[in-house]
Write a structure and sequence with these properties.
The protein has 9 helices and 9 strands. The chain is an alpha/beta fold and 247 residues long. Strands 5-6-7-3-8-9 form a 6-stranded mixed beta sheet, with helices on both faces. Strands 2-1-4 form a 3-stranded antiparallel beta sheet, covered by helices on one side. The N and C termini lie far apart (38 Å). The structure holds adenosine-5'-triphosphate. GO terms for molecular function: ATP binding.
């Protein structure tokens, strides 16, 4: 039984139909990455899957008492506010030193417990946010562009860590990334979204796309090139499209 599934959901933001006709199931232990152009509904779909927004149509089904760990894009820290890593991880409820140390060790930043949040590098901060997300031993880790602002080697290291955590904790991972070329090796299934799911498959299937190979390693363009290639096809289903696929 999937941990979370969406059945033919549609989500509106005012007059904007951000997500439509989306059905998606997340199984235990799998890593699923959602990619797509800006404004294609990736964050909206993620938020609908975890219950943070209610679909206007369709249903979301979650396993009862599902433990979800959420990693935001980043945390905007007021540098005037003194806050150690340990204190931050004890909010909003105290979890105790042992658990905090274990979580920081799992995310590769065990030595920074007493440091101020405001003094951390971008990569360290993301690992602290990841540590916070695993404190409740989640069955699902949800990440919304967790490596924004990190350089490519730091992003790649972060995604390798996600894969290690999945293996250690046995959790499923659902994430949004712009960097398919970086996240590829740490992904079981890729979902290409443009309001609706345009295509999905294993990284092997998507890496076979000539347009992607041509542009592999050229930054965000790689993911978008893949997107363009994979969408140069006829759809089996009669979606009411409100966008055009580029060739
Ligand atoms: N709170 C909101 N109010 C109004 N419109 C919204 C809101 N959130 C998202 N939208 C709109 O819904 C559409 C989908 O937005 P969403 O943030 O889900 O896309 P995204 O693929 O995550 O974008 P990006 O890659 O730029 O982060 C966009 O047209 C966006 O402007």
């Amino acid at each position: 039984m999937p941990l979370i599934s969406a059945q033919n959901i549609e989500v509106h933001h005012g007059a904007t139909r951000a997500v439509f006709g989306v059905s998606l199931a997340l199984d235990p232990g799998e890593i699923v990455t959602i990619v797509g152009p800006n404004g294609s509904g990736k964050s909206t779909l993620l938020r609908a899957m975890i219950g943070a927004v209610t679909p206007n149509k369709g249903t979301i089904t979650k396993q009862p008492d599902l433990r979800i760990g959420y990693v935001p894009q980043t945390l905007h820290i007021d540098t005037a506010l003194p806050m150690t890593v340990r204190r931050f991880l004890n909010l909003p409820k105290r979890v105790g030193g042992g658990k905090i140390q274990a979580a920081l060790a799992k995310t590769g930043v065990e030595a920074i417990e007493k440091q101020q949040l405001s003094g951390l590098s971008g990569g360290q901060l993301q690992r602290v946010l990841l540590a916070r997300a695993i404190l409740n031993d989640p069955q699902v880790l949800v990440l919304d562009e967790p490596t924004q602002g990190l350089d490519q080697p730091a992003s790649a290291a972060f995604y390798r860590l996600i894969e290690t955590l999945r293996d250690d904790l046995g959790c499923a991972v659902l994430m949004v990334s712009h960097e398919l070329h970086v996240v590829m090796s740490a992904t079981d299934r890729v979902i290409c979204l443009n309001g609706h799911i345009c295509c999905e498959g294993t990284p092997d299937v998507v890496t076979a796309a000539p347009a992607y190979r041509e542009l592999f390693g050229t930054g965000t363009g790689g993911a978008l090139a893949l997107y363009r290639h994979e969408h140069n096809h006829d759809h089996d289903h009669d979606h009411d499209h409100d966008h055009e696929h580029s060739a």
